[in-house]
Each structure stands twice: as C-alpha cells, then as structure tokens.
Amino acid sequence: MKTDIRKITAAILCFVMLTCSLCIIGYAEDKKPFYLVLGDSIGYGSGLKNSREACYGRIVADTNGYDYANDAIPGHTTQNLLGRLETETVREHVKQADIISITIGGNNFLLGNIAKVLFDVIVMDDISSAEQIIEGFYFDYCKIIETIRTLNPDAVILMQTLYNPQTGYTGEAYQTSIDLLNDAVRRYAGEHPGEIEIVDVAAVLTDSEKDFAADRIHPSVAGNEKIAVAVLEKLAQLGLGKNTEPVIATPGTDIEVPEIFSGSMGFYGNILHFISEIRLVFVNALSIFGLA
Length: 292
Known about the structure:
By secondary structure, the chain is an alpha/beta fold. The protein has one domain (30-288): 3-Layer(aba) Sandwich (Rossmann fold). It contains twelve helices and five strands. The chain has a five-stranded parallel sheet, sandwiched between helices. The chain is globular, with a radius of gyration of 25 Å. The model is unreliable at 9-28 (pLDDT under 50).
C-alpha cells in the first residue's frame, strides 16, 4: 500500500513539475523584448505633429514587435537626463529594458549657448566655447551610462550621433560643434568597449530639404523613418531583430512653422559672417600699419 502511495505521489509531483516547466517555457516565448527611448526632442519626435504614434522609436518597436516606452523630453540636456534617471517611472523602465536608445547633447549647445558658440566660431574663428560645452557633456554622459548600468547591467545601449540640420554659414559652424560632440561619443565607446553601440544617424540624415522639419532642427517624417532604419539595421547586426524594412503603422505628419522662424538661424549666420568679414578687413588694416 505504501509503495502505491509513493508511486502516486511521485507521479503527481512529476506532473506538477512538468506543468510548471511548460508554463515557464510558454512565458519565456511570449515575453517580448522591451525597447526604451531616452533623451531629448529628437527621441520624442518633435518634428512631427503625431510624434507619439510616428516617431522613429514607435516605428522600431512596431517593426520588431517590441514592448515599448518613450521617456524622451523635448529641451532636455545631459543634466536634465541625469535628473530624469532619478524618477521612479524612468528607473523602472530602465530596469526592464532590453534595448535603450539615447539621443542627447544637442540642447547642451542650443539652450543659452548657441549664440555665443556661433559668434565665436564664425566671427572669432575660436572653438574654445564649444570645447568647454563638450567637456561638460562628456562628464555628464559618463554619469548617464554609469547610472543606467547600475540599474541594468545587461541592456544594449544604442547611442545616436548628432546630425547637422543647418546649411550655409550656420551649418558650417554647427558642424564644428557637432563633430566635437560625436568625437566625444566615439571616445567613450573606445574607452569603454562593449558599453554602448553607436548608431550613426549623422551619416544618414544628409538631405537638408527632406530629412528635417520646417523648424530646421528636428527630423521630419522622412528623417524619422531614416533613423528607424539605421536603428533596425544595428539591431539586426546585433542579432536583436531580423527586420530592416520599417513597418509604418501610423503615417507621420510634419509640423508647420512660419517661415520667419524657420529661416532665423540662417539669417543670424549670414549676419555673423558679414561681421567676420568686417573684422578681417579691420585686422588686416591694423597689420598693414603695424598696429596688430
């Protein structure tokens, strides 16, 4: 009798263990990778009227069937992102994430600094103010990645390079600053191998008429789709996705901006170039008379 009870008990235990194993396997198969976007207005999709439905993060998630959250905030700098990483909701998202896309750094130049940087670069041929901003950016960036790694040691972190949406004299000065920032990102990757994967957005957003919204700052519908493809291709290289043809569940709509605002940066660049020419004539005159 005892032998029969033992056999029955063993059979029941085997059945329970098998059932639990099947449930765990089924759960693992159903669990989707969690994709998180952090950063500024580029990640948010500020060049689109329907940013939440049509930004590049949404396209990547829809294409690869990921679970998805977008915690990017327009106007954020590296300092803002560090503060954001202290909020409970964002921290929980970081802990859950399998893949994290980051776009940050542009506002370190734009907010309160762009006029001086453009003046220094265009008029004075001096990049020291841009270099100073990059020093702060790099210090913050190291802390950002360190904070993310403390919360989640295993997530794949995709860091995007910064593109240049401007043309003319402003575009030339922009490029000087952007090159410094992108070099800093690559320096981090070299000094911390395996910590980040670089998605070279700057290399794919090159069409000034099509890739950027009317504000001449943010990616347009076409620009967001190009970023999505760049991210998808990187994920495919890493074995985290097979699809590189973007799935557009909701077509995007570009924002509309009055011409007076969209052309203001270029106008400012032209004025600075005119001032630089006057300064050059003045410096040459002083040199001729031995006063320089």
